[in-house]
Amino acid sequence: MEDVDQRRSSTTPRYAGALMLAAVAGHLLSQAAVGALATWQSWVLYGLGTALLVVSASAIDRLNRVAKRIRLRWVVFTAVLLVSAGLVALAAPPVVAYGRVLLLGCPQPTEVRVLTSVDAEPVVSEVARKFEQHTSARNHGCRTARLYVFSAPGNQGANALRASWSSQDLREIGPHPDVWLPDSTTETNEVARRTGGIGSAVRIRPGESVAFSPVVLGVPPAIARDVVSGTPETWGELFTKVGGTGIPIVRPNPLMAIDGKLATEALYESLTPAVVERRVQEAVRPPAGAAVITTEQVLLRRNRGCAEKPCLTALYPSDTYRADYPLNLVEWDAPDVSNLAAREPARRFQEWLGTQEGMSALNAAGLRPARQAAGSAFREELGVRAGLVLDRAEAAPDDDAHTAFQKSYEQAKRDGRVWLTLDASGSMAEQTVSGETRFAVATEGVRKALTQMGEKDTYGLSVFNNDEVRRLVPLGRRDKEATTAALNAVRPTGGTPLHQAILDGLDRVGADDADHVGAVIALTDGEDTTSAQTRQDVVNTVAQKGIRVFIIAVGDASCSAHALTEITDASGGECRDSTTNTLGDDLVALFRRVWGGAG
Amino acid sequence: MRWLRRFWEARPRLGPPGVVWANRSWLAMGVAIGVVLTILFTSGVQPLFREPTEWEKGKLVVLSGLDLSENGQRQALINQWNAEHPEQPAEIVELPLEADGQRSEMVARAREKADNVDVFNLDVTWTAEFAQSGYLRPLSGVDTSGFLRRPLESCRYQGVLWALPFNTDAGLLFYRKDLVPEEPLGLDDIATTSLRALRSDRDARLTAGFGGQFDDYEGLTVNALELIWAEKGDVVDETGKVVIDSERTRRALRWLADGLKGGEPVVLPESRDQNELLTTQAFRDGKIVFMRNWPVAHRALEGNRGESAGRPGIEFEVMRLTGPSVLGGQNLAISSKSKKPRAAQALIEFLTGPRSQQLLFERGGLAATRGIVYQDSIVTRKHLYAGTLLKAIEDARLRPVTPYYSRFSDEFRNVIRYALDHDGALPADAVEALTGALQGR
């Protein structure tokens, strides 16, 4: 045989073979020279490729010789080609994928951004981790998706989506979401309607609720034992009973948070709005021993981390509404932020939440999927109960009721009275990048903020420096230009009597009464330097008067480092670290909050 | 087995078509010709088609996290560039403060077909991921002399330079001067000094000895690594092998887990919910003797060390951690899709150049990546910690280098959280889980 082969081979195939090896050698050299073959894996891959080339060339040559002896060889050839092509098409992708994982490790998972509410973030994160793990099951242990879960306070997420995610939203809220999992279906509808039109860069595909969590009244266990009766009770009845024990009842702002809104709507149905508003407190951090209006899942998760279980026991009013967590897909049309790759895994996440595995994950995290009974996570010692009887079929009142509710809420809230005091110490004359002084930036921010003033709202203004507080505008309704003009005449210099200014503001605003609710807003860029009063004096006065104090810290000032939060926490206010870039927006947000709107 | 023998006998005839292995001269000649032609082509023909060297025109988009420098110094530098190069204006697209959110948006944008970004400002831990995914263009013809060794090392992956260091960072140990007679040499010293201070009743506000960032975010990864390194343990060695299961590592975790407990805790129990800002506040309020933090805390404390507002002042000093610090900071890299790579590279070189680095440190407080800046007298006068920081950076270590770093960090925090709840014991599958995470599983 060998002799025959030797005789039949001409020099042409030898040239071909030599040429091929020349190409391989040249390519190898150039690859090695540019550093593409830096790892052993790349050498293995290169070797495999070369071997494949040589073997297939050899095989074709051999096949060619065999084929010459076959009758109908074109038919056979075509058939063989088709069959082998089919085999390769079927077998190659999984084989290549597995080989890839073996040699190069897992491919990077697709990034999916999930926007949710502050309250739901821990739950959604937990469920998302389980989904990631699920995607690795059929993929050689490699996760195919990574879910980045983030949240926006209040309705900021919905507003940002409506505004097609401006650059400010990108900076302050987070990346463009691919999935939007808000607290309630009612939030979705309006946004979906508004974003569907022509010219909108974002499209929302509304999805169904994946699970729900009823709004409950969490009370200390001792109170729960006193209050609970055998029969189901409504929000109005429970509220009156718990209110009668004298403990504070804390509620999130109903224009900001869904639990606050749903509970308040149910309460207004049986009680006079003004009665409800006079009894509840709005606070971000509820004090110990208070009753809290919240969703069941928040209470459940808080109890898990509790030293003495449970911290709070959930009371389930029979007429309560519920947060129902719809999963909406978000699609972006802008060519530079579309993230098309995320659409497929986002859809699979949605589907997975409807499977047995997904529902179990939701249940374990503290939510109740609609089609599955509450699981072992819902235990007495965690302050919740598994069985649930709710009167209402709908999760939340419809949109029309919401408008009416907003009106009665705003009426029940009192008119705002704000005292604003600005730091005019020497450091405020420092220049920002834009070339203006800090004080000029603040003046501009105040002008913007005053546009938020409601019809019956009033304000007054002072500046502080050296060791004095100067009143520029007395309390009342004034036009904005007068204020700006007064501020423009101020020349920042000297020290920072912050405490004195806050105390003066408290005096000016006066105590809250039936018609008015007051607040003091102070803007400072440094710590108090020249007041006679200590911080403790201010804290005491604030706590005693109960007037909310808000502080905006810019420049060298810092809420945490100067413990300014101690002052603002004394009365349910807030301290906010700001920069000269965001000062205007922060002031606007604060004024909106103080004057009763959503912030 | 017969076919195997036949295959073996046919071996001399296998190979490229018609080439008989016995006839080796053809092979040798083929290889020789290939090598010669390649060398001729690369050195003779390619230079004729060399790319032009002038910068492309048009806007340069820089994706970056929120500017944390004092007085927007980063933007000031960009303004300066724009004034000098009106045909290649740069614009910073600011991403959220949280690093994970920045990464998420950057990855999603890098996957777009459109040429939507020219320069990435990457966290030091992301170089491997972005390089491996093909989002970056390697840098060539860059003068890397003058950069500090560690930050520059974080710009390389698999021997290729992908980025230039923009700003760097290293953890420091802050301590109360009035309570610490001599600088501690190790974790045990910190514990002893803390307990002595707690028992001495010198300061009623003291509640614990040491404060760090042990909330469940990247801070926990950083702090846990540093404590393990301080006990001369390790998590991942140079070859990429997980070596967490050692007596030294367990000792460090035990120190932390035990320290968090008891009536006179060595480690502030609240620090399990604290980030950098909250730790700073605890230290300023006199609750702790020692604090691990980034140098940015020095600026916050420096301005408020005096007595004021009824709060006693504090006297503090800063030193290097007792072990190596984790290297922080950010690197600038060119997007592989950028149509303006030469202009982008020029911008990167401008921002990492000696003058920019000097301004960023001197006015913006961002630690420079070039050694020369630390010798400047204005810098050392304005930032008293500069000398200590330089030593800490030179001594700092990179977090494990892997394209799946965020996955690894997640898994590592699971291990640490378990250890803190179980007296420093490691979960049974710790090595397996971390090894998998390093490979993206």
Characterization of this structure:
The complex is a heterodimer of chains A (599) and B (441). Chain A is of the alpha/beta class and 599 residues long. In chain A, 45% of the residues lie in helices and 16% in strands. Chain A is built from 22 helices and 17 strands. In chain A, α3 runs antiparallel to α4 (73-104), α6 (156-162) packs parallel to α8 (185-195) and α17 (438-450) runs parallel beside α22 (583-594). Chain A is globular, with a radius of gyration of 34 Å. Residues 1-7 of chain A have low confidence and may be disordered. In chain B, 49% of the residues are buried. In chain B, β1 (60-65), α3 and β2 (90-95) form a beta-alpha-beta unit. With 441 residues, chain B is of the alpha/beta class. In chain B, the strands form 3 sheets. In chain B, strands 1, 2, 3, 4, 7 and 12 form a 6-stranded mixed β-sheet that branches. Chain B contains 17 helices and 12 strands. Chain B has 2 domains: 60-170 and 327-395, 3-Layer(aba) Sandwich (D-Maltodextrin-Binding Protein, domain 2), CATH 3.40.190.10; 175-324 and 404-438, D-Maltodextrin-Binding Protein, domain 2 (3-Layer(aba) Sandwich), CATH 3.40.190.10. Chains A and B meet through α1, α2, α3, β2 and α7 of A and α2, α3, β2, α4 and α10 of B. Chain B: InterPro entries: SBP (IPR006059). Chain B: The chain crosses the membrane at residues 21-41. Chain B: It holds the Pfam family SBP_bac_8.
